[in-house]
Amino acid sequence: MSTAYTKSKKSFLNLGIIPELLKLMKPRVMSLVIFTCAVGLLTAPNSVTFTNSALGILIVAVGAGAAGALNMWYEADVDKLMTRTCLRPIPRGSLEKNQALYFGTALSILSVISLYYFTNLLSASLLLFTILFYVFVYTIWLKRKTPQNIVIGGAAGALPPVIGWTIATNNVSIEPITFFIIIFLWTPSHFWALSLYKVQDYKKANIPMMPITNGIETTKKNIFIYSLLMLPAIALPYYVDFVGELFLVSGLALTFYYNYLCYQLYSFKKNKFAIKKAQQIFGYSILYLFLVFVLFLVDRLV
Questions:
Q1: Which residues contact 239 (CB under 8 A, 6 or more apart)?
Q2: Rounded to two decimals, what is the model's pTM?
Q3: H, E, C per residue of 111-152
Q4: Does 21-172 carry CATH code 1.10.357.140?
């Protein structure tokens, strides 16, 4: 038995590391996963008992946390270089890399098997695909190789509401695909706004985010374009008869304001940007997605 394994095993017996292990699961990201998954489940046509619903959502959250832990395991070397991530458990020295690897792997296996046992094979397969895609395609393959990392990698973050839907229905139809499209098209403008005012972090970590590889002007233009793509994305659920006019009108109003903010960023001085505006877009984008999914629930209730 290796010394590293023995040391990690002993450390796991120390209950004091539990808060640090929970931090590996990226609680803030998990909260969004839980919410969008719940919306997918609650808007599905099939009714599910409260116990089964809560259990399914909890398992999906654990799977998302497992992916987060494996992401922190692999990115520990760059996390320590960035102000946004340098206080994570591994760079801070409160956990070892091997602990994150074992923890993330164990949770991945547990969550997929549990979702299959308590719900259905389709949901478990989608959860497995989400974890593998986030870890291997986004984290290991794309993130350090292309400025399109966040575009392609956004597919992983767009799947939780689809999984919620399949927990209730055991099938994929056009309705949950609209969830996927909304989150998938929302992700680039959200993260590129962050990359603008955190560009020095990404430079130090040698991560090819768009402001570094393509410049500020191209990044601003792409943020604005992707914000405009949210207009047809928000209209799509209405045109497939998934939601009513309440969702359409309210969702478009939220989107027009998002377009306005992104246009302000884009129309600023060429090859320059206002840091506060980029921060405002990043902050509003989170609220925007939350409110859009709240509208799905409200529309369903009405």
A1: none
A2: 0.92
A3: HHHHHHHHCCHHHHHHHHHHHHHHHHHHHHHHCCCCCCHHHH
A4: yes
